[in-house]
Amino acid sequence: MPSFDVVNKVEMQELDNAVNNVKKEVDTRYDFRNSVTEIELHRGDKRIHLLAGDEMKMRALQDMLQSHCIRRKVDPKCLEFKDIEPTSKGQVKRDVVIQEGITKDVAQKIVKKIKDSKLKVQAAIQDDQVRVTGKKIDDLQEVIQLLRGEEFGVPLQFVNMKA
Predict the structure, then answer these.
(1) What is the CATH code of the structural domain delimited by 3-8+101-162?
(2) What crossing angle do the helices spanning 104-116 and 137-149 adopt, rounded to 10°?
């Protein structure tokens, strides 16, 4: 039976490239001169650490990160910005968590949406992905179009299309 998987994966190399591009832009921008500004990608625990001189620079850094992610085809919805925290040196820091995988709640919403569509397909939650199977590839393509039209709060990719 034809099937495909609905997943949420982040291309870490592209995210690394986006972070490096932000670092280069910070080095060349006039408003970041003579201020401490850091951006680091921690691949192991899937987070980005931001450090800036004040909240205005932090917002600018956040905007740059989001725009560079868009340029590198990384969906900024996978970035969860935590609260801005002051440091002891009068600066501000912020952690950005990189969300990968589909949570149980989102997976249940996806399955419910597929079942409500009355298409002849089955959806099953498997760890951090949703497997959709059906008899016809056309039905599976309709499901893909249906899910692309909805907003689930996480970017969705459709992989492993097997006929």
Answers:
(1) 3.30.70.860
(2) 120
Domain boundaries along the sequence of the chain: 3-8+101-162, 12-98
Q: What CATH architecture is 12-98?
A: 2-Layer Sandwich (3.30)
Each of the 163 residues of the chain gets a pLDDT tens digit; together they read: 888 998 999 999 999 999 999 999 999 989 888 888 999 999 999 999 999 988 999 999 999 999 999 999 999 999 999 999 999 888 999 999 999 888 899 999 999 998 888 888 888 898 888 899 989 888 888 889 999 988 888 888 888 888 7
Let me know: does 18 contact 64? Beta carbons within 8 Å.
no
Q: Tell me whether the CATH fold assigned to 3-8+101-162 matches the one assigned to 12-98.
A: yes
- pTM score: 0.83
